[in-house]
Amino acid sequence: MTELTSLTLAEARDGLRGRRFSALEITDAHIAAIEKARALNAFIAETPDVARQMAKASDERLAAGQGGPLEGVPLGIKDLFCTKGTQTTAGSRILKGFVPHYESTVTSQLWRDGAVMLGKLNLDEFAMGSSNETSAYGPVKSPWRRPGSNADLVPGGSSGGSAAAVAARLCLGATATDTGGSIRQPAAFTGTVGIKPTYGRCSRWGVVAFASSLDQAGPIARTVQDAAIMLRSMAGHDPKDTTSADIAVPDFEAAVSRGVKGLKIGIPKEYRVEGMPAEIERLWAEGAAWLRDAGAEIVEVSLPNTHYALPAYYIVAPAEASSNLARYDGVRYGLRVPGKDIVEMYEKTRAEGFGKEVKRRIMIGTYVLSAGYYDAYYVRAQKIRTLIRRDFEAVYAQGVDAILTPATPSAAFGLAEMATASPVEMYLNDVFTVTVNMAGLPGISVPAGTDASGLPLGLQLIGRPFDEETLFAAAGAIEKAAGRAELPAAWWA
Ligand code: GLN
Question: Which CATH number fits domain 2-263+408-482: 3.40.30.10, 3.90.1300.10, 3.30.1360.140, 2.40.30.170?
Fold first, then answer.
């Protein structure tokens, strides 16, 4: 039955509809795979009982010919999405024991469409990180290893559990979130597909907030088609989130095979950063050639404010985080460490509850928002943000349909290799992805090849607001040319 875990989400969906196997069978196959893969630490909570119950209900609906678009499809959920009755930790000690009595809009739409929840996936604490090493529940190990080596690699972050679980065939797809690159970077590191939709495409209601003006939910899956299927269920207007857009959700799956004939694809010269490995350059050129061969026109474009994006992001994101995380005070959620009075209780709770990276962000954020520094840092960062958005608008005004860049400046690195360096070193992982969040645009990472040691590399496509369809079409063309990413050999099972 293990081969059921190797199906794509689309194949599984069709197989379930055709009653070739049951939801319970495919769910049990994944539960068994998860139990054998605990060495990866991809899950914070496994929920096999919930999964079997949901699968049985799916089987009943399928038998009655009533299945939804994801009926019986087993998924993993990043532990940043509130799930009713199942602990939600955000990868933090401070939320240990927090069991929401409500369901996030995104997950409730997945369940509405018939999906099955296998468990809650590990992540960087409050989604702050690029390697999954800031999680209070321990780092996630990538299912990938360099050939002939037993050294553990990171799966990327913050959606490292999601990317690792999808690549390791522990679920058919997973939810993820992206504030500065947390869907696209782990997808690139693990040979999976990840899309951060336009800001406002998915509801943020019930998703633990990191930086509210940048946070977006999206899927990680093994194929472009699978990501398109998942996003359709996750997206849509939600009156409970005032930033969610009241725009119809198209049939993203139909766009995947649309092709790129006649599309204008921009190559931004500012993304050619110093010290970038030659193989990333090569992959990027190859990606452009594939799109050209498929009928697209390739043009060089300029996004002149690109090099300000990372420093501006590391002002805006911590500022919003420091405000959002003020709610964790030991009174309302999760952990409480008693003190002699309320102030000491706050201090002790936060000292014990938050990890080092989260504390660093709260300190930076509080500093840049404080009187006297607000104008010098926060206001300037917001102005840069406007300039970055205008750069993109100018390029799209020239008739460019999508922009092609590398997804990350390198392949996956070793566990603990980067964590010991300065935090700025780690922040550089987001150099190609944060611009997209700053501008609120959609971005997809698609596997496009491997580095010299055989590790996956991804290309990123950036689109116009609410034009995820063009991204699916272009990513589909790259996937077709590059061939679907290989899956890692199961050394952990
Ligand atoms: N790596 C970035 C950060 O640490 C982005 C994280 C994210 O997208 N959630 O802030």
Answer: 3.90.1300.10
